[in-house]
Amino acid sequence: MVVLTVAIDGPAAAGKGTIAKALARELGLRHLDTGSLYRAVALRVLGGEDAVAVARGLGPDDLADPRLRQPEVAQEASRVAAIPEVRAALLDFQKAFARAEGGAVLDGRDIGTVVCPEAEVKLFVTASAEARAARRHAEQVAAGQESSLERTLAEIRARDARDEGRDHAPLRAAGDAVVIDTSGLGIDEAVARALGVARARLGR
Ligand code: CDP
Ligand code: CDP
């Protein structure tokens, strides 16, 4: 069985999800947005439940909740993501998804370092905090949510600091990851670069 895994990591709103979806489509692979797992745990923690218990019993319905994209859920996600038992409870599902037949693209913070250290393709997608805040702010405005650029930038910085500073599976580029800085890139250009790296590595 031939299984190809593409690991995409990077900070909030760097363009990981956009690139991951495009690569999955172009290469015929399945896609998992691993941030949605941490967001799903966070949403139920905000509702008063225990983080570890929720992570151990997470189901498909939890991942379909439209409230997962709310800014307060993102902040709480980076708090629950620092709990080792939460990370451990979510690991098997991610590993199984990555290695199932057909191969997959996974995007998150620790895919190339912890979840799929053996991935055939590893990308670290990043951009300046200002560029990322502008994108997330524009998304929130387009979704009709109340948003301020200043607050969004502060939220992104707070989340970066938690994700980079935690003891377990901190956000960092794997030694063998190719770094793509999307600060000055449009979506098409960023996707084309990522696809070029993936095709070169996979030879297809
Ligand atoms: O998955 P991640 O949080 O890293 O980012 P995303 O959801 O793929 O992208 C965040 C926002 O930035 C989306 O609205 C994208 O359309 C936009 N984007 C962009 O403006 N330029 C890029 N090169 C990549 C994404
Ligand atoms: O879309 P965005 O990049 O804003 O965030 P996300 O990918 O949905 O991730 C939300 C939070 O989950 C992150 O800030 C991390 O704290 C955590 N996360 C993680 O620790 N490990 C992953 N593989 C994915 C997300």
Automatic annotation (TrEMBL):
SUPFAM superfamilies in the record: P-loop containing nucleoside triphosphate hydrolases (SSF52540)
Catalytic activity: dCMP + ATP = dCDP + ADP; CMP + ATP = CDP + ADP
Major location category of this protein: cytoplasm
Enzyme Commission number(s) of this protein: 2.7.4.25
Top-rank taxon: Bacteria
Top-level enzyme category: transferase
UniProt KW Flavoprotein keyword: no
Residue numbers binding ATP: 10-18
All copies of domain Cytidylate kinase, residue ranges: 6-196
Keywords from the named record: ATP-binding, Cytoplasm, Kinase, Nucleotide-binding, Transferase
The keyword Kinase belongs to this UniProt entry's keyword annotation: yes
Xref: Pfam families: Cytidylate_kin
GO molecular function terms attached to this record: kinase activity
Subcellular locations according to the entry: Cytoplasm
Protein family according to the UniProt entry: Belongs to the cytidylate kinase family. Type 1 subfamily.
Name listed for the protein in its UniProt record: Cytidylate kinase
Originating species: Rubellimicrobium aerolatum
The organism's taxonomic lineage, starting at the top: Bacteria, Pseudomonadati, Pseudomonadota, Alphaproteobacteria, Rhodobacterales
